[in-house]
Write a structure and sequence with these properties.
It is a single chain. The chain has a single domain, classed as 3-Layer(aba) Sandwich (Alpha/beta knot), CATH 3.40.1280. Helix content is 44%, strand content 22%. The protein contains 5 helices and 5 strands, in the order E-H-E-H-E-H-E-H-E-H. Helix 1 links the parallel strand 1 (3-9) and strand 2.
């Protein structure tokens, strides 16, 4: 089974959003989704980047994974394109996929230089806790698109 690691800077504490997130997490069966929270470092992107990279190294000691940053400057896709993109990466990536949601001030240079790609959820700006929920819903939607489930119409 393919594995996807979502690494987020900051902790989700809102019980309503956690309940919605849990709803989608229960529905995702086509791949293993792991969520790793990194403590925010008061907008110090250098320290946050080093913590994210340390987590990636812990989870991926063979360095065969792919690091993808969520950024407003990243590639934009509709849901069908995102599903194709995700499943293509599952097929061609030997290790895990790492999707990274950075802190409120973005990504440190070390993390930017180690990333393989940037994608965007939207041209709109979302709070990080909403971006996390939207991404998880889109991962579920990608699964339903890939399996021709009627959820995505």
């Amino acid at each position: 089974m393919k594995e996807l690691n979502l690494i987020v800077v900051g902790q989700l504490k809102d019980h309503n959003l956690l309940a919605l997130e849990e709803h989608y997490l229960k529905q995702i069966k086509a791949f293993k989704l792991n969520i790793h929270e990194i403590k925010s470092q008061k907008e110090d992107v250098t320290i946050e980047a080093s913590l994210v990279l340390k987590k990636i190294d812990q989870l991926n000691p063979n360095s065969k994974g792919m690091v993808i940053l969520l950024s407003e400057k990243g590639k934009q896709m509709d849901s069908v394109s995102f599903s194709r993109w995700l499943y293509n990466h599952f097929e061609k990536t030997a290790g895990s996929l790492f999707l990274i949601i950075g802190g409120s001030t973005g990504f440190g240079e070390d993390l930017l230089s180690k990333s393989n790609e940037k994608i965007s959820l939207s041209m709109l700006t979302f709070p990080h806790k909403m971006a996390r929920l939207i991404l998880i819903e889109q991962l579920y939607r990608a699964q339903t698109i890939n399996t021709n489930h009627p959820y995505h119409k």
